[in-house]
């Protein structure tokens, strides 16, 4: 399927909407307990069970509209289904809380493996959106590996040492803000190594 363009607003809604709804659902149901088939499930598990098909639906719509999904998006969906499904199946919220750790550790591992081969796998994902010299991609990839490792460690600290509510806030706002701030602070790399697209002839 050929890649198609959609507006940034629609793309952001499909990518961030499920996370926002997860947060809202948790806030509303966090103190409630539900019984299904004779087993009690707290609000976190119920919201997690709803989040999985919601993410699959939004990702499917994004693929239908654009004709393309990045490898990172696909891996994220797979890990959400696996770890979220384990949390629901075993009625144990710890598996879903581990999911960001696994995601960031996997991303760091893949990008780090590319660096060992002298390549930037990040370029293959973002190269079309952000034309940049190879040296710039290598610098950005090294920094992103360290950043992902840091996020993985922080997630472990948060879910093991703090309350579920604190972890949900960290996951919803802290991780999102951290990613935004990281790329904002890389502006010097983008400006120094960025490649200007060729101007079209009038």
Automatic annotation (TrEMBL):
Transmembrane segments: 12-29, 41-65, 72-90, 102-122, 143-162, 168-185
Membrane topology: Multi-pass membrane protein
Record Pfam families: IspA
Localization, UniProt: Cell inner membrane
Top-level taxonomic group: Bacteria
UniProt KW Transmembrane helix keyword: yes
UniProt similarity note: Belongs to the YciB family.
Gene expressing this chain: yciB
GO CC terms in record: plasma membrane
UniProt keywords, alphabetically: Cell inner membrane, Cell membrane, Membrane, Plasmid, Transmembrane, Transmembrane helix
Protein's UniProt name: Inner membrane-spanning protein YciB
Principal cellular location given in the protein's record: membrane
Source organism of the structure: Pseudorhodobacter turbinis
Chain's role: Plays a role in cell envelope biogenesis, maintenance of cell envelope integrity and membrane homeostasis.
């Amino acid at each position: 399927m050929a890649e198609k363009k959609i507006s940034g607003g629609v793309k952001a809604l499909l990518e961030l909407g499920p996370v926002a709804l997860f947060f809202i659902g948790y806030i509303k149901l966090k103190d409630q307990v539900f019984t299904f088939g004779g087993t009690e499930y707290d609000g976190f598990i119920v919201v997690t069970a709803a989040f999985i098909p919601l993410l699959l639906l939004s990702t499917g719509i994004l693929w239908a509209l654009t004709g393309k999904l990045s490898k990172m998006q696909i891996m994220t969906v797979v890990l959400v289904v696996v770890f979220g499904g384990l949390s629901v199946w075993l009625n144990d919220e710890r598996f879903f809380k581990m999911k960001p750790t696994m995601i960031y550790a996997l991303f760091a591992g893949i990008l780090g493996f590319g660096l060992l081969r002298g390549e930037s796998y990040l370029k293959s994902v973002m190269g079309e959106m952000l034309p940049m010299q190879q040296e710039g991609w290598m610098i950005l990839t090294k920094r992103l590996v360290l950043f992902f490792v840091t996020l993985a460690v922080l997630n472990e600290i948060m879910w093991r040492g703090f309350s579920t509510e604190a972890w949900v806030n960290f996951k919803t706002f802290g991780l999102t803000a951290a990613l935004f701030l990281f790329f904002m602070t890389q502006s010097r790399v983008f400006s120094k190594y960025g490649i200007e697209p060729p101007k079209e002839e009038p």
